[in-house]
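Inverse folding, one chain.
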């Protein structure tokens, strides 16, 4: 998406003739200035004092007049002199960018300092040389033109940045939606092999988010668990059992208890799943894709136990990735409270009792504490997706 500078300028900077407001109580001076300026291609309008000048400016702001590109103003005038008019113009935000040149017969340096301090951009003494006057006017109009061009460019760049940000957000959302669809699609490969799991993936990802959110409120996990981490574990958790696609149906769908040999084969699914995601990471040539990283951690380690008696690596305590420690509890809770071919669903109370009993052995005590604080939400999610299953 390229920026065309000429296009930007053409939208904001016009080539119209410059308009100058002449403010002087002497009609002869006004006519002289008008003649000089018209010869040079300027357009003019005039006022006999400061009040008339402000009325003209007010009319231009209201749309009933023309806004000047520069003001030539005398100091000594009746009704409202140049001092007060200059100050009032500068006090009003809508006028304060208009250049003001004081054209005065007063040569006192203190007077000149005073008008400059009130906001005049320049002054020229009467009687004046027309060439000097025109040079001063041209310089200030060019300066103002450059300031207007800069403002137009800044505004255009601001619009461009907003458009670019919107495009980035849309593209990011598209990528994230594609990631989500890919993750769910891959996870369904395993789920379809085991039809009785039903809405397992939706329950699991919501349970993980609840535990992660609660842990994130603890000082211990500040800097580890943030909004992005919670989002990633929600998205990646469905990949936990993807390795089951490598387990034979005779074992995966067996209605009775597995033999020791069959269980040894079943215990290979974390490695199969973790290795598959690790291979996907390699294809990305070293780029850090955190949703795959967390998905890989969960796939490899969700059957590890906090006391080191789990599988496949017998990892212990904090050596088990936090994402997998969260998943371990969520997965067991869902397995216990869901019906299987080999068992009926447990009640929440029975599952709660087992989780408390296995705190520190199977489960991370911090994850158990988070579960207990959020158990009402667990019950709601279980009921919500149990109802969906029934439908």
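Residues assigned per position:
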């Amino acid at each position: 998406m390229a920026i065309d500078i000429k296009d930007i300028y053409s939208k904001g900077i016009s080539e119209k003739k410059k308009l100058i407001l002449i403010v002087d109580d002497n009609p002869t001076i006004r006519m002289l200035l008008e003649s000089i300026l018209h010869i040079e291609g300027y357009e003019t309008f005039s006022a006999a004092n400061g009040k008339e000048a402000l009325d003209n400016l007010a009319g231009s702001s209201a749309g009933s007049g023309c806004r000047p590109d520069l003001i030539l103003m005398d100091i000594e005038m009746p009704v409202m002199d140049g001092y007060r008019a200059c100050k009032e113009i500068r006090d009003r935000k809508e006028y304060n960018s208009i250049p003001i040149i004081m054209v005065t017969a007063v040569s006192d340096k203190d007077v000149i300092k005073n008008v400059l301090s009130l906001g005049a951009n320049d002054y020229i003494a009467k009687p004046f040389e027309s060439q000097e006057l025109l040079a001063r006017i041209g310089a200030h109009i060019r300066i103002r033109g450059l300031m207007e061009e800069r403002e137009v460019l800044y505004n255009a760049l601001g619009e461009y940045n907003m458009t670019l940000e919107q495009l980035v957000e849309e593209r990011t959302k598209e990528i994230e939606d594609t990631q989500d669809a890919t993750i769910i699609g891959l996870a369904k490969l395993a789920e379809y092999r085991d039809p009785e799991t039903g809405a397992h993936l939706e329950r699991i990802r919501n349970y993980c988010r609840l535990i992660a959110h609660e842990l994130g409120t603890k000082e211990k996990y500040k800097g580890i668990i943030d909004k992005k981490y919670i989002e990633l574990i929600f998205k990646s958790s469905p990949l936990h059992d993807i390795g089951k696609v490598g387990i034979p149906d005779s074992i995966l769908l067996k209605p009775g208890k597995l033999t020791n040999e069959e269980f040894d084969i079943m215990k290979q699914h974390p490695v199969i799943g973790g290795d598959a995601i690790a291979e996907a990471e390699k294809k990305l040539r070293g780029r850090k894709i955190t949703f795959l990283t967390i998905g890989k951690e969960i796939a490899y380690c969700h059957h590890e136990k906090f006391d080191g008696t789990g599988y496949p690596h017998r990892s212990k305590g904090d050596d088990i990735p936090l994402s997998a420690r969260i998943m371990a509890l969520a997965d067991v809770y869902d397995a216990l409270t869901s019906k299987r071919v080999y068992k009926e669903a447990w009640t929440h109370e029975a599952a709660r009792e087992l989780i408390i009993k296995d705190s520190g052995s199977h489960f991370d005590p911090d994850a158990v504490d988070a579960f207990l604080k959020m158990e009402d939400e667990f019950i709601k999610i279980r009921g919500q997706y149990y109802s969906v299953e029934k439908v």
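Strands lie at 19-23, 43-47, 70-73, 100-104, 122-125. The two ends are 48 Å apart (CA to CA).
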